Amino acid sequence: MRLWRRNIQLRVVASTLLLSMAVVLVLGVVVIGQVRNGLLEAKRQTAQSQAEGGFAVAEDLAGMAGENGENAGRSVDAGNWMTELVGQLASGGQGVFSVVAMPSRLAGAPFAEEPFSAPRGPRVSQALELDLPRTVSEDLRAAVDSDRSVHWQYGSIVNANGTSEAGLIIGRRLTDNLGNQYQLYYLFPFTQEEKSLSLVTGTIATAGLFLVVLLGAIAWLVVRQVVTPVRMAARIAERLAAGRLQERMKVSGEDDIARLGESFNKMARNLQLQIQQLKELSRLQRRFVSDVSHELRTPLTTVRMAADVIHEARGDFDPATARSAELLLSQLDRFESLLADLLEISRFDAGAAHLEAELTDLRDVVQRVVEGAEPLAERKGGRLLVRGAARPVVAEVDPRRIERVVRNLVVNAIEHGEGKDVVVRLAAAADGEAVAIAVRDYGIGLRPDEAERVFNRFWRADPARARTTGGTGLGLSIAVEDAHLHGGRLEAWGEPGGGAQFRLTLPRGAGGPLAGSPLPLEPHDARTRRPVSVAAGHEQADGAGPGAAGPGRDGGKDGHGN
Prior knowledge:
Strand content: 5-15%
Number of domains: 3
EC number: 2.7.13.3
Largest sheet: 6 strands, mixed
Distance between the termini: 53 Å
Structural class: alpha+beta
Catalytic activity: ATP + protein L-histidine = ADP + protein N-phospho-L-histidine
Organism: Streptomyces marincola
Number of helices: 11
Order of helices and strands: HHHEEHHEEEHHHEHEEHEEHEEE
Shape: elongated
Oligomer: single chain
CATH class of the largest domain: Alpha Beta
Membrane topology: Multi-pass membrane protein
Protein name: Sensor histidine kinase MtrB
CATH superfamily of the largest domain: PAS domain
Strand order of the largest sheet: 7-9-10-12-11-13
């Protein structure tokens, strides 16, 4: 089945063979039927002509025998006369038919009770005995006795040993030399016709098989001319996708396939050029971000020192200047947060991020995050609830990075929870291979069109929305990278107006294999049957479709500099 699905050449050739076989079979049945009908009709006409001639001869012989017997003053024995008649009529057939004379039943005696003994018994022209009751049917005998016309039917000529062959049976009621009624039958076997029909059938079958094989070979050759370049293009496309951008198709000729190859090669060259430009641009961007981030640290440190001095002395200033000192310090905090995020992103891009993993009880990580975010939740009017903290949830993680991920998720949930409770759940898999943390809010929810962008850098659903905690737009991007660095994944689920849930799943050992998650991505209290969900970087089987951030949700971070 896999070969059938993947090989178009096999499907085309097999379909051609099957259709060809069907056509040949239908044509063969039609032709054989026509030949068979033609042979039967020709046989019937010839046999009927011969039988009618025999019937005329029998009438003439009966009349002559009657006149001779009267002139001689004696009557010829009917049994001997009938035996001579049957032999004389059959002698002209040279074995291609048999002649049978049987007594008539016009006297009203049942057919089964009439004896077949001489001189009134049947007379057969063949040395081989026949099973006359099974050969000459009762219906035909009754029809022959009903009138003196010629009657015929297709049937089987059954021998006394039980063997039979198809044949044509023609009969008529006549008068013998003594004026008694009798039935005369001609039995024409279809031996020659069956041989002819078998020859025609064998010829058609052989020709049909040869035609089907020939059509299959032609289809294979024709399809190969088209499929081979397509397969080559598929292999080269796979190599291009693997990064071997110098691969090209071999082009020969000027037909459609050649033009396809030229177009493919042109596309590959353009892709190579664009990818090289993007790589160079990405390299310059990463270098710019890294250089700017490092270069800004020194002046920012100086500004921070000056701002601290001004902030400490704000009591000596007038109210407007004191407020300016407070704003200066808060914006410096935000500036430092952005700078720290940029440095972290540059480390991820450069592949310089490393784990400092240790066995950690994630309950402690969650507790620290909850304690730090409770003031914000109180200001919003909601509560932070922790579920699943009764048992240890231990994994080999980098506590600093995981705490940063959880803090981003919790603060985002508070920001977009519309003053409702936020639930944090912890769980460990029964097999001990994975642990998970899920953060659930009941706020504005998520829209499907924002699903694939919620984890993008600097993306926000509504940039004009007022924020109370600030943010850089890099929080969820960094969280995704932290999850991947551990060998885990970060996923999002949501429904418009029904809130959202972000789930972080980590292997028990850092970088270990990860299959399922001990927590469902779709919460049990979801309102709809078809939620929107997305996994950072790839779709997940336990989500019902794409979806992530909702109105006002963004990829930013909280206002605590995380």
